[in-house]
Amino acid sequence: MIKHSFNTAMESFKTDFNKIKGIEFPSHRKTHTGIGKTFEDLIGVVENNNLLVDYHGHIELKAQRQFTGSMLTLFTKTPEPKGVINLLVEEYGTPDEKHPKYNILHSTVSALDFNTYKGTYGFKLEVNYGEQKVYILVKNLQTEAVVNRTAYFTFDTLKEIVDTKCKNIAYINAKNREHDGQEYFIFDKATMLSGLTFDKFIKLVESGVIKFDFRVGIYRSGTKIGKPHDHGSAFRIGKNNINLAFNMEVLD
Known about the structure:
Layout: H1 6-20, E1 24-26, H2 34-42, E2 60-65, E3 71-76, H3 84-92, E4 94-95, E5 103-109, E6 121-128, E7 133-140, E8 145-154, H4 155-165, E9 168-179, E10 182-194, H5 198-206, E11 210-218, E12 228-230, E13 234-238, H6 242-245, E14 247-250
Parallel strand pairs: 2-9
Antiparallel strand pairs: 1-10, 3-13, 4-5, 5-11, 6-7, 7-8, 9-10, 10-14, 11-12, 11-13
């Protein structure tokens, strides 16, 4: 396997991006993840769900529809200990509309204050420097008591991810349209994001700039129907705050 330097990887990425820039392509997948799958296929990247950095071991790829949402996913991560997210969904989630005997949990959580989830519970992040963990707290909004503090992320785990997956990010914007049930993309802008350290990441979590999103639904068919399905619970940042976390350079 050829090992690339960062500079070589950057030049290669610019070449690959410019080959497809401004050209319309059909989505390679029908779900919301089609944009990332399509872009990676076009520049020859094999999809991965581990700590390997997407492009030549140096550049993480983030593709987003131009007018969708206000948040950028930094990385997906399920809290520890193993299985705790399923317990949170079971205890504090809300019934799925089509399968009401099973719970789902979709909520954006900040370290600034408890949110309000369906008027019953509140979630909040707690940065604990003594224990070197980021906890997810759950509060009963009726009694104002914190009723759960079992889910957490260790600093060591978060640092490993930030130092690898967030070191250099190519943030790609695409115009999209749909026709006869088929989505199409035009990848027209790439911005390099760099300079996010773990210390900066933790401070931005603590200040509420970086948030955590629960995105846990259920399998709606097949042998796993009704079982929890994490669609990508993740640490995310608002698009208008990206400059607080990263140095930004638009690629020509």
